[in-house]
Amino acid sequence: MGIKSIDDNSVTLLTSGQVVTGIDSAIKELLENALDSGASAIDVVLENYGRDGVSVKDNGCGIVKSDLLNIAQRHATSKIDSFNDLNNIHTLGFRGEALASLCALSHVFLTTSADGMEGYELDLNLNLKNLGDDSHFKRLAAPKGTLVRFEDLFHNLPVRRKDFEKNSAREFTKVVALLQEYAMLNPVRLSLEHFLKNKRQRTLQCQGTQLIQRIACIYGAKRTKTLLKVDLKLSSGELSGYISKRDFGMGDAATVCQLLAINNRPVKQTSIVKTIVEVYKQYNLTETPFFVLNLTLDPSSYDVNVTPDKRVVLLHDEYNILNEIRDAITRVFKSEDHVVPRSDPP
Ligand code: ADP
Ligand code: MG
């Protein structure tokens, strides 16, 4: 066959399919953009499980017209200039490929205003084709912030489209879980509405300046009574949040929320989760803890660019961090005022 370069179109499909793996990862990317824009309110709307469209609206900084010319081009970002900036990254995004990938796999429309007066509406797919041309921008009055809407996800990846249509109800539960995670980790007002056959169902509404308020929004006030506050200094950073009191663990390890974030980015860091659960098991043999914990670390002490979804983080000093977390969590349970006998949550 000989060695030759794959054509650009195919490369785009190959790489986009790894960034946008399902409707949940598409929504995750838009949510992260909204959070990076400094929004205090984010509204997500799904039509028929997202099969007919998804929109994410924020009241963040919006996008100025000159930037709209570059938006959705692959690896175009306002968040880093070069690779070294990752040593001091404070945004959730930085790879500049989410919108480009979404455009490659669906039809994307964007409405934005950076000042709350002058706004623009554009078809992002056209944006890609007409480099440097703003003839498809529609000027309109719009509130400050950005709305991104995508339709026909995976229209050009038949296997994935079929899979999505077949499993859209199951995928929807992943979307709800994802929104719950981001709602707990961020002091913003976040809502999810679902329209099923034109019938409106609100599925999530969460806000609160304190983490405990947001946990109450999602899991109920009763749950918060079963939790211990964690606020620990480590030599490398801080660990803060809430974890089940030792007598109030949960039964079902498969469904309990064990949310770990590093600098407010939800991560899949099984080594840390395992360590926390192991310590908990020393105090409660039969149950597993609910927890929402954020590890604050210097961004130069880990590499977040391991997978396109940035959910896996490589810690430079994992061994020591694990030891410190083990000791710190042990201290939390040792100091727990252990007077409440096992009963229903107080
Ligand atoms: P990244 O988030 O990695 O920069 P994206 O493709 O997700 O890449 O977004 C590209 C750029 O578009 C961002 O860097 C940002 O400047 C802009 N952008 C995207 N979504 C929003 C939004 N909701 N509000 C403001 N700017 C946005
Ligand atoms: Mg992004």
From TrEMBL:
Hey, which family's this protein in? Belongs to the DNA mismatch repair MutL/HexB family.
- Domain DNA mismatch repair protein S5 stretches: 215-334
- Which residues of the whole protein are included? 1 to 346 of 815
Q: What is the protein's name according to its record?
A: ATP-binding mismatch repair protein
Provide the species name.
Starmerella bacillaris
Which domain of life does the protein's organism represent?
Answer: Eukaryota
